[in-house]
């Protein structure tokens, strides 16, 4: 079974590797629904290992705008 963090990473993987904007939107939606269960430090670390720092920051900027939280 996937954790909520794994679900976000799965959706971001489709965005990172295939430029699937729907994957980005789904990752954002998952985050909005259960943000308290998502480990953003883990997502950031994984994103860096995947060589996708720029796209991770797009994801982060989008969730910041939507949630108005500080990270």
Describe it.
There is one protein chain. Helices cover 76% and strands 0% of the residues. It is mostly helical. It has one domain. Helix 1 runs antiparallel to helix 2 and helix 1 packs parallel to helix 3. The model has no long low-confidence stretch (mean pLDDT 96).
SSE blueprint:
Layout: H1 4-18, H2 21-34, H3 40-49, H4 53-67
Helix pairs in contact: 1-2, 1-3, 2-4
What is the compact description of this entry?
The chain is mainly alpha-helical and 71 residues long.
Q: What are the salient characteristics of this protein?
A:
71 residues, mainly alpha
What is the distance, rounded to the nearest whole angstrom, between the alpha carbons of the first and last residues? 28 Å
Uncertain segments are none
Count of individual beta strands: 0
Number of helices: 4
Biggest sheet, in brief?
none
Helical residues, percent: over 70%
Global structural class: mainly alpha
Number of domains as seen in the coordinates: 1
Mean pLDDT: 96
Radius of gyration: 11 Å
What is the H/E order? HHHH
Strand content: under 5%
CA-based shape: globular
